[in-house]
Amino acid sequence: YFPSAVWGDGSWLILVAFVVGLAMAWFVAHRARQRQMATGQQFPVLWTSVALIVGLPVLAFLLAGMPLTFDFPKQSTFNLTGGFQVKPEFLSLYLALSCYTAAFIAEIVRAGIKGVSKGQSEAAGALGLRSGPILRLVVIPQAMRIIIPPLTSQYLNLTKNSSLAIAIGYPDLTAVAGTVLN
């Protein structure tokens, strides 16, 4: 059992501020790219975007009067009440599938990046690019042709493996879809 968040009146302003922050961050990134193409000067897009995406919702949260309280679980006569419960079946399924799948995905991405010829990154370095742009502009686009097919198979495998949730008593996507089809 964990405490659950209870949003009060005016909490919709936080969501609106988040969406506005996303839109403004996109606009800033778009204008910064135009400025760089026109003048060659770079603009600190990352920190500006973080300030917009995080700062605006925090400001809206404070201006709305901090409309957030927590419902803590309390011991009642027979059981705990309040809060929300994470089922042990879900937790075990989540941890097992996420660790298993994360290991495979990490290996797929590592192999895809290693599959790009070292001469490509050396050539980009000879052109004067630093390690970050080399990875982003040269290595990753070439590695994607190696990464995408096994990554697609791994995501399909994750969907199939989640059907094992029936064995531990948790209704997953395939169990619910099978029930609806029946």
Compact overview of the structure:
The protein has 182 residues and is mainly alpha-helical.
Plain-language structure description:
This protein is mainly α. The chain has two domains: 4-81; 88-181, MetI-like fold, CATH 1.10.3720. The chain has helices spanning 12-39, 45-63, 88-114, 118-126, 131-161, 173-181, and strands at 4-7, 68-71, 74-75, 80-81. Strands 1-2 form a two-stranded antiparallel sheet. Helix 1 packs antiparallel against helix 2. The longest helix has 31 residues, at 131-161. The model has no long low-confidence stretch (mean pLDDT 89).
Short key terms for the protein model shown above:
mainly alpha, 6 helices, two-stranded antiparallel ribbon, 4 strands, MetI-like fold, 182 residues, single chain
The appropriate CATH architecture of the largest domain is: Orthogonal Bundle
Order of SSEs, N→C? EHHEEEHHHH
Q: Count the domains.
A: 2
The CATH superfamily of the largest domain turns out to be MetI-like
Total beta-strand segments: 4
SSE order and pairing:
Blueprint (H helix, E strand, L loop, with lengths): L3 E4 L4 H28 L5 H19 L4 E4 L2 E2 L4 E2 L6 H27 L3 H9 L4 H31 L11 H9 L1
Helix pairs in contact: 1-2, 3-5, 4-5
